[in-house]
Amino acid sequence: MPRATDGTKRKNRRKKILKQAKGFWGRRSTNFRTAKDAVTKAGQYAYRDRKRRKREFRRLWVTRISAACKNEGINYSQFMHGLQKANIAIDRKSLSNLAIEDKAAFSELVTLSKKALGA
Fold first, then answer.
1. What CA–CA distances, in Å, run from 26 to 21, 34, 64?
2. pLDDT along the chain (119 residues), means of 10
Protein backbone atom coordinates (compact mmCIF):
# COMPACT_ATOMS: atom_id res chain seq x y z
CA MET A 1 0.00 0.00 0.00
CA PRO A 2 1.43 3.40 -0.95
CA ARG A 3 2.35 5.78 1.82
CA ALA A 4 0.28 9.00 2.09
CA THR A 5 2.52 12.00 2.62
CA ASP A 6 0.52 15.18 3.06
CA GLY A 7 -2.31 14.99 0.58
CA THR A 8 -4.88 17.73 0.45
CA LYS A 9 -4.02 19.38 3.77
CA ARG A 10 -0.77 20.77 2.44
CA LYS A 11 -2.34 21.84 -0.83
CA ASN A 12 -5.27 23.54 0.92
CA ARG A 13 -3.00 25.39 3.33
CA ARG A 14 -0.88 26.71 0.47
CA LYS A 15 -3.91 27.56 -1.64
CA LYS A 16 -5.36 29.59 1.23
CA ILE A 17 -2.18 31.68 1.54
CA LEU A 18 -1.87 32.21 -2.23
CA LYS A 19 -5.51 33.27 -2.40
CA GLN A 20 -4.83 35.90 0.27
CA ALA A 21 -1.76 37.05 -1.70
CA LYS A 22 -3.77 37.58 -4.88
CA GLY A 23 -2.97 41.00 -6.30
CA PHE A 24 0.45 41.25 -4.67
CA TRP A 25 3.32 42.28 -6.90
CA GLY A 26 5.64 39.80 -8.60
CA ARG A 27 6.70 36.60 -6.91
CA ARG A 28 4.87 37.55 -3.71
CA SER A 29 1.61 36.47 -5.36
CA THR A 30 2.78 33.18 -6.89
CA ASN A 31 5.57 31.78 -4.75
CA PHE A 32 4.35 30.22 -1.48
CA ARG A 33 7.42 31.07 0.59
CA THR A 34 7.41 34.75 -0.24
CA ALA A 35 3.61 34.96 -0.28
CA LYS A 36 3.49 33.56 3.25
CA ASP A 37 5.75 36.35 4.52
CA ALA A 38 3.88 38.99 2.54
CA VAL A 39 0.47 37.86 3.81
CA THR A 40 1.72 37.81 7.41
CA LYS A 41 3.12 41.33 7.08
CA ALA A 42 -0.03 42.56 5.36
CA GLY A 43 -2.06 41.21 8.27
CA GLN A 44 0.13 43.07 10.75
CA TYR A 45 -0.27 46.31 8.83
CA ALA A 46 -4.04 45.82 8.57
CA TYR A 47 -4.35 45.22 12.32
CA ARG A 48 -2.21 48.25 13.16
CA ASP A 49 -3.96 50.54 10.70
CA ARG A 50 -7.44 49.65 11.89
CA LYS A 51 -6.43 51.28 15.16
CA ARG A 52 -4.60 54.13 13.43
CA ARG A 53 -7.56 55.02 11.19
CA LYS A 54 -9.59 56.08 14.22
CA ARG A 55 -6.80 58.43 15.34
CA GLU A 56 -6.37 59.94 11.89
CA PHE A 57 -10.05 60.68 11.47
CA ARG A 58 -10.24 62.39 14.86
CA ARG A 59 -7.20 64.45 13.91
CA LEU A 60 -8.87 65.49 10.65
CA TRP A 61 -12.08 66.50 12.44
CA VAL A 62 -10.17 68.55 15.01
CA THR A 63 -8.25 70.33 12.23
CA ARG A 64 -11.47 71.18 10.38
CA ILE A 65 -13.18 72.44 13.53
CA SER A 66 -10.12 74.49 14.44
CA ALA A 67 -10.04 76.14 11.00
CA ALA A 68 -13.75 76.99 11.23
CA CYS A 69 -13.27 78.37 14.75
CA LYS A 70 -10.47 80.68 13.62
CA ASN A 71 -12.87 82.21 11.08
CA GLU A 72 -15.25 82.91 13.97
CA GLY A 73 -12.53 84.53 16.10
CA ILE A 74 -12.09 81.81 18.73
CA ASN A 75 -9.57 79.05 19.08
CA TYR A 76 -10.42 75.34 19.16
CA SER A 77 -9.76 74.68 22.85
CA GLN A 78 -11.80 77.67 24.01
CA PHE A 79 -14.64 76.66 21.70
CA MET A 80 -14.72 73.09 23.04
CA HIS A 81 -14.49 74.34 26.63
CA GLY A 82 -17.38 76.72 26.00
CA LEU A 83 -19.50 73.91 24.56
CA GLN A 84 -18.74 71.82 27.62
CA LYS A 85 -19.75 74.67 29.95
CA ALA A 86 -22.97 75.21 27.98
CA ASN A 87 -23.77 71.48 28.37
CA ILE A 88 -23.77 70.93 24.62
CA ALA A 89 -22.69 67.35 23.96
CA ILE A 90 -21.88 66.99 20.28
CA ASP A 91 -19.10 64.83 18.90
CA ARG A 92 -16.23 66.09 16.77
CA LYS A 93 -17.38 64.23 13.68
CA SER A 94 -20.71 66.07 13.72
CA LEU A 95 -19.06 69.40 14.51
CA SER A 96 -16.70 68.93 11.59
CA ASN A 97 -19.62 68.15 9.31
CA LEU A 98 -21.49 71.24 10.52
CA ALA A 99 -18.43 73.42 9.96
CA ILE A 100 -18.29 72.30 6.33
CA GLU A 101 -21.93 71.97 5.34
CA ASP A 102 -23.92 74.30 7.61
CA LYS A 103 -21.86 77.35 8.51
CA ALA A 104 -24.85 79.16 10.05
CA ALA A 105 -25.48 76.38 12.57
CA PHE A 106 -21.78 76.24 13.41
CA SER A 107 -21.74 80.01 13.97
CA GLU A 108 -24.68 79.61 16.35
CA LEU A 109 -22.73 77.00 18.30
CA VAL A 110 -19.74 79.35 18.47
CA THR A 111 -22.03 82.09 19.81
CA LEU A 112 -23.39 79.74 22.49
CA SER A 113 -19.87 78.69 23.37
CA LYS A 114 -18.68 82.28 23.73
CA LYS A 115 -21.70 83.14 25.85
CA ALA A 116 -20.99 80.21 28.18
CA LEU A 117 -17.41 81.40 28.55
CA GLY A 118 -18.62 84.88 29.42
CA ALA A 119 -16.70 86.55 26.63
1. 10, 10, 40
2. 77 94 95 96 97 97 97 95 94 96 95 89
Q: Which residues contact 105 (CB under 8 A, 6 or more apart)?
A: 98
The 3-state secondary structure of 63-114, one letter per residue: HHHHHHHHHHCCCHHHHHHHHHHCCCCCCHHHHHHHHHHCHHHHHHHHHHHH
CATH number of 11-117: 1.10.1900.20
Domain ranges of the chain: 11-117
